[in-house]
């Protein structure tokens, strides 16, 4: 086997580390993308019974965005296996307790219900902010593209860009709004 083919062969079977920035992203739509990398669906050697998935590091899970009023209406169920141990927690309460839990539950729900589900979740690493351990940062070699761009706050736009923005109407200097 040539050196080039050996490298290609190794690259196919290696576990790659990916990074995903969850800032302003919907966790349920993001979970579908993260699932592809955790299970290795994008690899040519993928098979549902083959465990060929990669590691995914999710940062900024504290700044996720849910649609509409889902923060107040989405409910998460938990049962502690004791009689009367069923609890329902609102999304904002759960996010306040642990900012990584909503992303974790979304990815867990998106994975197929089989025996590999828990092993696949062990390759998911979620952090509430951008502080990732140095040993994990050394392994990361790919960045997963976000679903939608993060909007720039108006107070962060430079003044020269605001001045150069095309105007539809040029008001006179002595114009007064009523």
TrEMBL record:
Which InterPro entries does this UniProt record tie to the protein? Ribosomal_uL13, Ribosomal_uL13_bac-type, Ribosomal_uL13_sf
Which terms does the UniProt entry file under GO BP?
Answer: negative regulation of translation; translation
Molecular functions (GO terms)? mRNA binding; structural constituent of ribosome
Which keywords has UniProt assigned to this entry? Answer: Ribonucleoprotein, Ribosomal protein
| Superkingdom per UniProt | Eukaryota
CDD domains listed in its UniProt record: Ribosomal_L13
Q: Name one GO cellular component term.
A: mitochondrial large ribosomal subunit
Do you know which HAMAP family this protein is assigned to?
Ribosomal_uL13
Q: Which family does it belong to?
A: Belongs to the universal ribosomal protein uL13 family.
What is the protein name for this chain?
Ribosomal protein L13
State the organism named in the record. Cardiocondyla obscurior
């Amino acid at each position: 086997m040539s050196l080039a083919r050996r490298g290609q062969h190794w690259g196919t079977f290696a576990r790659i580390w990916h990074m995903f920035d969850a800032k302003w992203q919907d966790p349920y739509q993001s979970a579908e993308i993260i699932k592809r990398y955790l299970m290795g669906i994008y690899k040519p050697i993928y098979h549902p019974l083959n465990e060929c998935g990669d590691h995914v590091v999710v940062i900024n899970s504290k700044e996720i965005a849910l649609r509409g009023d889902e923060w107040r209406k989405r409910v998460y169920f938990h049962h502690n296996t004791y009689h009367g141990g069923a609890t329902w927690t609102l999304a904002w309460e759960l996010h306040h307790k642990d900012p990584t839990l909503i992303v974790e539950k979304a990815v867990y729900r998106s994975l197929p219900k089989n025996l590999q589900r828990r092993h696949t979740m062990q390759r998911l690493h979620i952090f509430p902010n951008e502080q990732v351990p140095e040993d994990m940062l050394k392994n990361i070699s790919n960045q997963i593209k976000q679903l939608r761009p993060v909007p720039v706050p108006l107070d962060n736009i430079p003044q020269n860009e605001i001045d150069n923005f095309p105007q539809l109407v040029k008001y006179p200097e002595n114009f007064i709004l009523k």
